[in-house]
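dumping this here before i forget
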Amino acid sequence: MKFTTTTRRTAAAIAALTLAGSGLAACNDSSNDPAASGSTDGAADSSDVLATTSVWADVASAVTGNDVDSVIKGTDIDPHHFEPAAKDLARVREAGTLVANGGAYDASLYTVTEQDRIIHAVPLVSKEEAEAHMHAHEHGEEGHDHSHGEMDIDDLEHAWFSPAKVKEVAAAVKEKVGGSTDDVDKRMAANEEKLAELPHTHIAMTETIAAPLVWGTELHDVTPEGYMKAALNESEPSVQDIAEFIDEIEAGHIDMLIVNPQSANSATEQLANAARENDVPVVEMRETPPEGVNFLDYFDQVVNELAETVQNLPDKGEDAHAEHAA
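structure:
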């Protein structure tokens, strides 16, 4: 897949924050194999499936044909900051199969159970590594390198917006629990095809949740680095960061702005207003689907909206973004 310089920049920053200076997470050999299923504990029934979040519960349900429950529910809970109650941890320990995202995202849950019961999209981290990640966010620490070295999609934590990762997890659920991946595979393949057909377009994001979705496509992330660092650190961007972002919008260097309405603040509102004032389309992309909407349906909706927006952009010519070319 193509991997643009700016996409590498985004991935590098996400990876560094996720690892919080501790190096690539590795609980053991199996934890570094995304979507690993492994062998099931003899005392556990692998068909007893639980997911950490509703997103992965929807994927597992599509495969098994059964309703899979999740620990974290609703649209107002950030899994990064979720503090599980004793009953939540008990459910995780009792589940024969746990479908998790991996990384620091839902580590407060999956770190209490045996790894061979866990199906995960990105590599698992230890409890200590997850705590280091949270400490870095809370204190706005940056001591990380933004080099453009070769990165891997496993470094992108919001893995459920990667069609490839959704298919990997679905396949692991089928292997471990049974069922069919036909529907998931068909839908993700259709979304991959739509994204692959889109022409070179400069996008910017108020958050990095779209990074896995645009991975390997011609949707080129040109989010200003200063703003991106602040977003990754979950800190307020500086006045200078916001001004630089708005300058890029007004200069015509950004074709589309992706915003997350679940985390709107004064900075994102300024950027969205600047985009609209300069006829730059604003596409909303939530971290989790709206209440009552299945994740796979929402995934289709997001891809369709992105594709329609790109296709309706005015033709600026092949050299319009030459100075920002990777």
